[in-house]
Design brief:
Layout (H helix, E strand, L loop, with lengths): L17 H8 L9 H6 L3 H17 L4 H14 L3 H13 L4 H6 L11 H16 L4 H8 L4 H24 L13
Helix pairs in contact: 3-9, 4-5, 4-7, 4-9, 7-8, 7-9
Length: about 180
């Protein structure tokens, strides 16, 4: 769900107060702070507290990066969060996913090419999206390879990226130049 215009404008750097500057400067990449962060800077206390959780999910999760990115891309797809998708495609590549695998995250768990474990990851995202719970079958398929901690991180990753997708889509956060959204 991509909006043509933002509902909430990013806070321009010229309007950053000291607290906002301290929050955002550490997020600068390639000379810029992405629109998700400058938009959330409209509520600096929320941004500060959300960053703790988001940092765990992206940087400190017990899920291996490849599995984490399959889960994140699938969540971005089912939530139709083009911004999230576009930002995670390069991260997924760094985590070892091929373009074919990245494209496959837009298909159902039964898509040809997934091994049974990867198909269970995709199915877990779909089940959590549809019913807010994983089936016993999917849980068992994942529990054969993931620890309890990793299963919890998987659930919280899906939840975090649902939350982020809702914010991105509702606030109308615009994709920066240089990022490619959904291939439709």
């Amino acid at each position: 769900m991509t909006r043509d215009e933002p509902r909430v404008l990013p806070v321009p750097e010229s309007d950053w107060d000291q607290e906002t500057r301290e929050l955002l400067e550490g997020l600068r990449r390639d000379g810029r702070v992405y629109n998700i962060f400058t938009t959330l800077a409209n509520h600096p206390r929320l941004l500060k507290r959300w960053m703790v959780f988001a940092s765990h999910i992206l940087l400190k999760s017990s899920l291996p990066p490849r599995e984490r990115e399959i889960v994140i891309l699938r969540t971005g797809w089912v939530c139709q969060a083009e911004y999230e998708w576009a930002h995670h495609v390069p991260i997924a590549r760094q985590a070892g996913l091929s373009q074919e695998e990245i494209d496959r995250t837009a298909a159902a768990a039964g898509a040809e090419g997934w091994n049974p474990f990867e198909a269970a990851l995709v199915k877990a995202v779909d089940e959590l999206h549809q019913s807010s719970a994983m089936s016993d079958e999917t849980w068992s398929a994942l529990a054969g390879r993931l620890t309890t901690e990793q299963l919890m991180d998987l659930i919280f990753t899906v939840g975090e990226y649902h939350l982020v997708s809702m914010a991105l889509n509702s606030l109308g956060v615009q994709l920066e130049p240089g990022f490619q959204g959904f291939n439709r």
